[in-house]
Task: inverse folding
């Protein structure tokens, strides 16, 4: 028995090392994939610090983005307090496929992008603590716009975006009250180019503007569950992100270039401008309320307030754009016909649906840019495990089709793999 115990512990340690190496390999892959990826082809990515790239865990996206719902097997990145409810180590990897139809008064075009959405790892420590970390894109730009005239072609393009690495911890004051705190480190770059190429020439001027950003912020989270009966309950949540500044280095230049067979060569740098300033990230407050029955159904509503009036980007500040405080309304829910069914797989599936409306806080050429969408989702259990494959579908519309603006109709397909396991437990019997 003593010998078997040693072998068992050795096997456990080897197994833990293999899992750790596996997680680190995936983390490396996701880190290199996320940094600087172009996940938005929208021309609205020109404004602010790019197009918002993260809408939440796929599980929550399927419910209209509602974050008030939580359980013991999923770590909700947008609601840190959920960490303290975890019963298993939760590894979550999300991917998305985005399809958008862009329309203005004269033309219509389709575009698509495919990318890694986020990575997170949540780890319970005892019965009251939990901590987690991960990486996700905050914003992105990857558009390229051509405007043909009788005299030549105008081209506008952008690439890059802002990423966020986060480390979070949460504590259960009691079985119904949970609090959490997250540290977020933002980093990334945005590059904007625009140039005009006259007809029948290979030499032209090109404006290049690039800004590298980095900075930190903190987010506080809390929730409370009120039991109506043994299985029915009310849930309340609060999340607040502090306003912060990103230290940013700007490099701008005007170059005289020549193009032969599609390859550009700089002939002369006509002008160069280097400067440093702060970009202000506004504060954000999320309030949610929901009602549900354990392991059966849930319906929630959420209001997000974003202080966009305080947003400041001194490097890109066109006069035709104004920022005002933004808000986001969400409504959604989930339903599980029979979570412990043995004979019928589809009764154990989680069915999700929701809708949301967002005033982005951007006013361009006198028009508010608003966003409306409906969502659907599935949580598919994996065999013999408390893990699942999540699918989320968004159908929506943003903006207006005017002389200076475009209307976007989008279809976003999100997929995530949520893997759960028990760590730090030594086996005593083979």
Result:
């Amino acid at each position: 028995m003593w010998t078997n115990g040693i072998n068992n512990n050795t096997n456990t340690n080897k197994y833990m090392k293999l899992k750790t190496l596996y997680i680190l390999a995936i983390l490396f892959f996701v880190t290199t994939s996320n940094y600087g990826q172009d996940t938005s082809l929208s021309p609205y990515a020109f404004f602010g610090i790019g197009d918002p790239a993260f809408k939440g865990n796929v599980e929550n996206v399927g419910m209209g983005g509602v974050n008030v719902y939580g359980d013991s097997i999923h770590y909700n990145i947008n609601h840190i307090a959920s960490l303290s409810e975890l019963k298993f180590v939760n590894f979550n990897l999300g991917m998305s496929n985005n399809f958008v139809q862009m329309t203005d008064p004269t033309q219509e075009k389709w575009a698509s992008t495919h990318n890694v959405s986020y990575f997170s790892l949540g780890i319970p420590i005892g019965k009251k603590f939990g901590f987690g970390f991960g990486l996700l894109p905050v914003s992105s730009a990857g558009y390229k716009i051509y405007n043909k005239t009788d005299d030549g072609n105008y081209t506008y393009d952008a690439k890059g975006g802002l990423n966020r690495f986060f480390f979070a911890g949460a504590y259960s004051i009691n079985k119904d009250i949970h609090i959490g705190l997250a540290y977020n480190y933002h980093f990334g770059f945005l590059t904007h180019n625009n140039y005009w190429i006259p007809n029948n020439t290979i030499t032209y001027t090109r404006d290049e503007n690039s800004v590298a950003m980095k900075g930190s912020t903190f987010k506080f989270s809390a929730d409370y569950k009120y039991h109506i009966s043994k299985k029915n309950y009310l849930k309340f949540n609060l999340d607040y992100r502090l306003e912060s500044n990103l230290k940013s280095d700007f490099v701008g230049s005007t170059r005289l270039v020549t193009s032969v067979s599609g390859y550009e060569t700089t002939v002369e740098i006509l002008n160069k401008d280097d400067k440093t300033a702060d970009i202000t990230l506004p504060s954000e407050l999320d309030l949610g309320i929901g009602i549900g029955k354990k392991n059966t159904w849930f319906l929630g509503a959420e209001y997000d307030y974003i202080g966009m009036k305080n947003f400041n980007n001194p490097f890109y500040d066109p006069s035709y754009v104004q920022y005002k405080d933004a808000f986001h309304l969400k409504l959604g829910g989930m339903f599980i016909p029979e979570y412990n069914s043995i004979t019928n797989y589809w009764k154990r599936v989680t069915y999700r649906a929701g809708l949301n409306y967002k005033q982005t806080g951007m006013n361009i050429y006198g028009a508010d840019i608003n966003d409306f969408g409906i969502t659907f989702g599935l949580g598919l259990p994996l065999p013999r495990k408390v893990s699942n494959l999540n699918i989320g579908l968004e159908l929506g519309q943003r903006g207006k089709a005017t002389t200076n603006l475009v209307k976007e109709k989008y279809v976003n397909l999100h997929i995530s793999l949520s893997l759960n396991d028990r760590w730090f437990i030594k086996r005593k019997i083979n």
